[in-house]
Amino acid sequence: MTAIINLKTAGKAGGIKAGTKIKWIRLVHGDHEIDAKVNGRVLLIRAASVKKA
């Protein structure tokens, strides 16, 4: 998976830039559909923010 838009993260400076690879994903139920690990951080991401790479 790859991020298609810049994503802001709460609590840490900087965010995730468009084009960043998301290596570890798990689909979950609820408001945020993807539980992912990006650059050593575990995040909840909406499916509309990523594309299949």
Tell me about this structure.
The structure is a single chain. The protein is mainly β. The chain has one domain. The chain contains no helices and 7 strands. The strands form 3 sheets. The protein has a 3-stranded antiparallel β-sheet, with no helix packed on it. A hairpin with a 2-residue loop joins strand 5 and strand 6 (41-45). The mean pLDDT is 86.
Query: Helix count, per DSSP?
Result: 0
Please identify the oligomeric state.
single chain
Average pLDDT number: 86
Query: Strand tally, please?
Result: 7
What structural class do you assign from the helix and strand content? Answer: mainly beta
**How many domains make up the 3D coordinates?**
1
Q: Write the element-wise H/E pattern from the N-terminal end onward.
A: EEEEEEE
Q: What characterizes the major β-sheet?
A: 3 strands, antiparallel
**Strand composition percent:** 35-45%
Give unreliable regions as ranges: none
Taking all Cα atoms into account, the compactness measure Rg is: 10 Å
- Widest β-sheet, arrangement of strands: 4-5-6
Distance from first to last alpha carbon:
5 Å
Shape estimate: globular
Helix content: under 10%
Write the layout of secondary structure elements.
Blueprint (H helix, E strand, L loop, with lengths): L1 E2 L3 E2 L6 E2 L7 E4 L6 E5 L2 E5 L4 E2 L2
Antiparallel strand pairs: 1-7, 2-3, 4-5, 5-6
